[in-house]
């Protein structure tokens, strides 16, 4: 009977809600009656009895002083040993100019003119049709030439363009003075000149000579969160410091000129982008900071050979260098995600979900091996999800694994559509999307998930400290009114 | 280091540097410029019959700028390639059909239409863009101008020589070549597919870009609605053509073989570029001649060329071949409006020298014939050509063709960074065996420039004959 089923499911929903409320507020529910009973007892006893009770304890000055000292001592030790809070003051994403725009038709025409291989042209057309990218994505100026012009000078030019624009935007938003930067971390996986990109930034902005700078290269699309992790550790060691984190990927030197199919995907998906983030552990920044870093969890599956070789840069038979993506990529990504969830789950999930997971696990081991493992409902732990926009398949896979609704993955899909796969900076474009839509409220928790070669799955959890007002003056400003758009499964070219 | 030009594309005649090696244009680098905002999904620009009549022809416009003087004002310095490219993005927003690509109507669409609609080319405005070519020339602008005055035909290597096809899908409708000279001067060469617009349309389009490059603001792209700016598709049933009398066949001529998707005119001879300059004094002298009183400069200059060419071709073709010439008169397009100023609205007609053969006729008499030539709208010509219009026809070059581009240079000046070009040439390429010449007012002074394509071997003889004729005047 439909009405019976309906009322049955509604009943189930209320049972679930009741269970969650009971378990998550267990301590409160326990303490409230105890406190009420004590208060009632005290009220009943009256002041005279209380005073005689106090005198019967026979406390003298020494006792009181020692107790007070003990309390203060324990309190101080506790406060001093807590980790320093890491605040995200603000961040800026690079918005490419319209003169870098590459519509689908132009991309296909260039491909056709560069290569004689009909099959690889058709393959790239199919990829592009199903990629989830839009017509607004941008490639650096060198890639607009037929054939592209991947010189070192062009790569440096792109790096300067994207990085300096992002940092200039960040300086405008935060009023950051170059002399105030104590820590600088730059991550760019595929372009690593000498001197490094961090040296390039220090040179351009005349940063201090005792700055602590780091340049992470070769660490793939999840390197943005690795930079955040490194910065957090540095900020624990150095009090009262500002840290500038720059995440980018330089496209110019990495255009694959051969015809191996597993290496052609990055050509179709990777686009230019960069993000500059200001982190700080200064107390006075807490007032204007947007987010506070709660957790960073890193999972590395490199010990497994299949995972290690799944995203592999090598030369093909003709000597062209490219990044080959194996067919098992989705499966390995799913595995890495499961490992990451296993670690992050206990840190963020409410007790109700953890108990359910625990009981189901015990049940699988002891009672019935065919029970499916319980997938915790992460929507209870987070309001917003930023999934690395690595490709449509990645977002689909994660949406299925985490049982997320279309609205939760909207930021990821729309970032893929508007900006393409900008590698490590895509998480920041997604966060900017959520803010531009006016959905970020004080107290909201955000989960950023990045995947990268290695194979790595890294997570960061942020808590929003102040509601973000629109318009945000970010990369989405001129087009947010058009989003979300309906992205067809296959675009007809 | 001097390197011979290597501009050989499939299907087009090799365009090596004309004459001495030092004038050669080399180092071509191709890139693409697209509209700055998304035009939309499946936005189609329909081509009228008049447009399709000209699909095998191309407009070549070359503007040569001298290097800015050493003591030039800051606003007058030379523009870099990047500064020339940047304004093209909003420019293409305004002229989005130019950055589209040709497609043919599929059989299964338009079920009500008859077979003539199937296979009909149209432009899919998919933002594919225009091709930009960066090249270099080892001569200075002065040396180049001397060579041009001496030999003519030097503008051809300054515009990219590529026809539409063999794949319609991937053929840009416009090429812009930026050639840098040794002295710091620059040449801008446009190769514009005639199917998208005639000479004044092209000139207006380029002038708009120059205004943007000089700092004028473009209208914001979000305010334009591409669908409202485009004309409706042509009616499914063609107008009653069977009842119209057959047109005189000299105006348009079908090609000897279908060209398919490779839009180049098959010619029996090699067609080579030709140019000649008539100074103001020579023009005045011409107009002093008896009988030349009421005739304009276009008619006089064209008559000179007609007579000289008839004499040159008499030995090969006989007297009759050059009796009929095609006359094309251009009109100024309405800027903006439904077709964005991209129209083929010029008027085409023909003139016949019925009395004495043109080689022996009087210049003034020929000029009068040209002035009196009956011209009709390109649309009407297309309608009368009937089925042939849907096929492959040749307009320029079916017989010797003269195009009156009048004041196109004055009406649509290309001013960059406050400077005007030292030399401007508008010509047509992809013409038939008859050859074609465009007559327009020169860039500096009030002489006339004649430029176009003629058969191999003719330019030299024609220039000599014209020089003689003008000296005798």
Which features would summarize this protein structure in a list?
heterodimer; A: 493 residues; nine-stranded mixed β-sheet; two-stranded antiparallel sheet; 16% strand; B: 473 residues; six-stranded mixed β-sheet; 13 helices; globular
Structure, described:
Chain B: Residues 239-253 have a biased composition (Low complexity). Chain B: InterPro entries: CAT-like_dom_sf, Plant_Fungal_Acyltransferase. Chain B: Belongs to the plant acyltransferase family. Chain B: Residues 221-253 are annotated as: Disordered. Chain B: It comes from Paspalum notatum var. saurae. The complex is a heterodimer of chains A (493) and B (473). By secondary structure, chain A is an alpha/beta fold. Helices cover 46% and strands 16% of the residues of chain A. Chain A has 15 helices and 12 strands. In chain A, the strands form 2 sheets. Chain A has a 9-stranded mixed sheet with strand order 4-3-5-6-1-7-12-11-10, with helices on both faces. In chain A, a hairpin with a 5-residue loop joins strand 8 (311-315) and strand 9 (321-325). In chain A, helix 14 crosses helix 15. Chain A starts with a helix and ends in a 29-residue tail after the last strand. In chain B, the strands form 4 sheets. Chain B has a 7-stranded mixed sheet. Chain B has a 6-stranded mixed sheet with strand order 1-6-7-8-3-16. A 3-stranded antiparallel sheet of chain B has the order 2-5-4, with no helix packed on it. Chain B contains 13 helices and 18 strands. Chain B has helices spanning 49-53, 81-85, 88-94, 141-151, 199-213, 226-229, 280-288, 297-317, 363-371, 378-385, 387-390, 408-411, 458-472, and strands at 25-33, 44-45, 58-65, 101-104, 121-124, 130-137, 174-180, 186-193, 253-254, 271-278, 324-329, 347-352, 374-377, 393-394, 401-406, 423-429, 436-441, 448-455. The model of chain B is unreliable at 1-19 and 235-249 (pLDDT under 50). Chain B is globular, with a radius of gyration of 22 Å. Chain B is an alpha+beta fold. Chains A and B meet through helix 4 and strand 2 of A and strand 1 of B.
